[in-house]
Design brief:
Shape: globular
Strand content: 25-35%
Number of helices: 2
Number of strands: 4
Order of helices and strands: EEHEEH
Helix content: 25-40%
Structural class: alpha+beta
Number of domains: 1
Length: 66
């Protein structure tokens, strides 16, 4: 396997086995299309998330989204 995938919830990650594939598909199934409150892009994230992975990482590092 060893393929990288991008998910707006978690960013880039590598699929190494069947468990990773199941997790990826489950996250995609639970996610909804909505506007990220940071960058304003339409992204596919979990309903309880307000920011895509890129914006969440920026905020966690003390960065500014404006």
């Amino acid at each position: 396997m060893g393929r990288s995938y991008y998910d707006d919830n978690f960013g880039f990650y590598e699929i190494r086995d069947e468990e990773d594939i199941e997790f990826y598909h489950e996250m995609q199934k639970r996610s909804v299309r909505k506007k990220c409150q940071g960058c304003g892009r339409m992204v596919k994230i979990k309903p309880d998330y307000a920011y895509c992975n890129r914006c969440a990482d920026t905020l966690e590092r003390g960065g500014d989204l404006g």
